[in-house]
């Protein structure tokens, strides 16, 4: 007979009877397979830790989002927000599905071009664009979303120097009744700054105002904020038509849709509280359709949703490095997936799932990462079953930002694999090794 | 000066057309030929002209419809009366007065009959001539100053005094020309229409007829033969008709039924042949009857047959099948036939309200026309629409709740402008799988598009209706939300068209104007189609650049500079519109017309008239059908009117067989090849192919490229193996 696995004794308070306001006793979600591919097999083959991306999930989520909008509004276009995840394989999946590219830097712009995105289908956002980058974007016919007057002046300057007519939109910030109100990007709606920018563009024959853009914040769980934002942009659109007889080509509502992750300090889990794509779509399209925009010239609705499209498709698989007991008596587990790979753990209480069911009992645990730094804490408190060294875990919903904001600190970044729709796995970013760093570095001769 | 010119032109046209009108034609050369024939008897010819001019001057003075005057409609009956009187009586000043008076009488009778018959959509034909001529025949026996013409009796003497024995022998060879019994009867019957009782006049008319229309000519022979054979079968004497000169009744009836009032087809030919024996019966019976009064029957059998037949035809319940009446009369069986066929290939049937799909985005058809569940019997022409995901599922999760269904609460939009006729919105949405059998249609909206076209939307979401009864709605306006009320087991939109404003009315088959169908990732254009079960369909999005380029507003002038064989030319087109509110491009230099229609989704060229070497003709071919939305790789196809492609001499043999089968074909295809920017495009290119086939052999092919910019049509090229035209728009 095989030796049974040792189970450490655990003391927990009994919660019998009626469920309290937090629901029934917590049950651990086990993730041992992603798209029918065994996580442990993947870890064996590609090493731990490992990022796993599900192509099927990307497609399903995109289609759901697109359907939510396109069945409510006649012209809808998604633009893939590169900053959320600019792995080429991910970007190309979105482009294949019909997404344009939304980039916020010269680097991302280059990436989009390298991914064979037509220049006319790149939206260039962000507060910092160099003159050279702007010239390149204008020549490629990209849409430039102006963030501040200094940028507008630069574009004016450029328009005198080159033949191409820049296609510009302005980013508008506004009070949508939510906190915090983002006012650091774009021109304010309420104080007339936005209108003044529009006037300057409209009076300059060398620029073409093609659209309006707003991005009201991030992880917005209130759909009414989008309704207000869409309504305000629609009013501006109608006003521009009235005053200048100029019909805008599009309204870009940006992104900021919440994913199903739970924010730190949130009372209820994100799965239960976050609006669905249908909720967002309903709010936005209702506002646009009920607006005073000329019915025969409804602008294209562009969405730059990033997080809500990719978060669910990304998983981080890792291994338990060690168990520890802190002086307070609290249990601690050291994982090989720290904040270096999980930047989002600064703001989310990530769900962490074992890959096998060891025990039904859970204990309050602190999850640390492998870094030799005090801040490397993935979860402060989590009711977690006991784990042993070498046991594996999966952290779901990490597709957004982690593969762009990750830190290369004291260790190499791991493999990233994609499971395609047929269940085959492909490495889409190779694990780093010393040569990556050697390539970039030079040592002055006298130190060699 | 201009006024005089105008009236002269009216007199010229109306006179010429009075002659051709008798043969259902408006061919100028045919008209001249007929005038010449009428002057075979000089005085008869003069009387004809006098009566035409009298009628038309009166019609003009009383400001009757100028179009009808020009067509000779007010005067062709008078012409016949004039010719007849002129033939019967000695020419004298009294006769001239009589002819003028009879012309006025005939005109009055025409106007009167027109008022009665046109209400029933029937033609007046030559009934005014009949009545007027009968009246005169009876009355004129009383006048002593009018002498019966003796011209026919002493003709040889008259001819001899003019030209001697040579002329007499020439005259005899003409007057007694005898090409065989059957042909002689045929030709003299034709001649009898102009009161010319000889074969030569008939031969000339037959040739003129052949020149005017191959279809009319073959029908004249068929009609005649049909009568001839029928006489044979019955044992009656065909030769008799040559004495009473009524043979033309068969010829004219066959021409009218087989190819003028109906679109020439196998069926129309069949009826033309079938009705002739009936005409012979009418002829025989009325001849006997009218003999009592000493009157000839003239064209009575023809008039009776055609009017009875046309009236019976109009009362058919289903007009869409089989025999089709000519709607726009072009006075040429060939023109009627080719444009009818082309129109049907391009536009199916004349649906004057363009319907778009009543929703946004991609929807699927879960039950189509004649569907297996509920679209049966009187309600067979309906559609059920749902939204499916990529796995063809209509819902997420388990589909246990209406909210799981993708189409639930989605906006429903008006497919065309209209007025809200009826609303029901107080019925609860059903639990999945439990249809409400009591309120069959559930929450419903009915929109009236015109007097006989209503659209109905059922099973809507409770209290979701956004419009009020009596309110007008615009195409694309949201009217309510998809729901699950009434006899609906799961959320879907039931959409149907009907001819009455009631909930529960029977359905009416009516297609959607144009939409796109997605199959395996490839878009296919559908025009005037009925979506089928499981089709994934969506509305076309137009592109402002294309809409602008093909928006030909009357008054606009487009100037082109073009190069052909290293020579530079210039031409300009003006956009004009006629009384029928039909827009066209007009090139003054080449006197060419290209007629345009635009349904919001497509720019079409309908028809071209004029110089086939003009730039306008090439543009007509190049931009025959343009989709106003940019869809890469979407192929637009269309069939062309072969008359606008093939040379006339190639058409002649084809005309004979065209009512039964066509061995010549011309097709048009185009594709968008370039767009510089999807958001705010400034340049779009279209590549078009025009191919002409004889018996599937490609004998002609053109390639055209059209470039469009923000100003409109920037340039186009047109080429085949022999030449290349490069045209650049220089001014809009």
Largest sheet of chain A: 9 strands, mixed
Structural class of chain B: alpha+beta
Q: Shape of chain B from CA axes?
A: globular
Radius of gyration of chain A: 25 Å
Q: Which two chains share the most extensive interface?
A: A-B, 30 and 26 residues
Structural class of chain A: alpha/beta
Strand content of chain A: 15-25%
Low-confidence spans of chain A:
none
For the biggest sheet of chain B, the summary is:
12 strands, antiparallel
- Give helix % range of chain A: 25-40%
User: How many DSSP H or I helices of chain A?
Assistant: 13
How much of the sequence lies in strands of chain B comes to 15-25%
Which consecutive residue ranges of chain B, at least 5 long each, have pLDDT under 50?
Answer: none
* Shape assignment of chain A: globular
Please count the beta strands of chain B (DSSP E, at least 2 residues each).
24
CATH superfamily of the largest domain in chain A, please? Alanine racemase
Q: What count of structural domains of chain B? A: 3
Question: Could you explain how this protein is built, in words?
Answer:
The complex is a heterodimer of chains A (448) and B (732). With 448 residues, chain A is α/β, with parallel strands linked by helices. Chain A has two domains: 33-53 and 313-438, Lyase, Ornithine Decarboxylase, Chain A, domain 1 (Beta Barrel), CATH 2.40.37.10; 56-311, TIM Barrel (Alpha-Beta Barrel). Helices cover 29% and strands 22% of the residues of chain A. In chain A, the strands form three sheets. In chain A, strands 3, 13, 14, 15, 16, 17, 18, 19 and 20 form a nine-stranded mixed sheet that branches. In chain A, strands 4-5-6-7-8-10-11-12 form an eight-stranded parallel beta barrel, surrounded by seven helices. Chain A has a two-stranded antiparallel sheet with strand order 1-2. In chain A, helix 2 (55-70) packs parallel to helix 3 (88-97) and helix 8 (223-244) packs parallel to helix 10 (277-289). Chain A is globular and about 85 Å long. Chain B is α+β, with helices and mostly antiparallel strands and 732 residues long. In chain B, the strands form three sheets. A twelve-stranded antiparallel sheet of chain B has the order 18-17-16-15-14-13-24-23-22-21-20-19. Chain B has a ten-stranded antiparallel sheet with strand order 7-4-5-6-9-2-1-12-10-11, with no helix packed on it. The interface between A and B is medium-sized, with 30 and 26 residues.
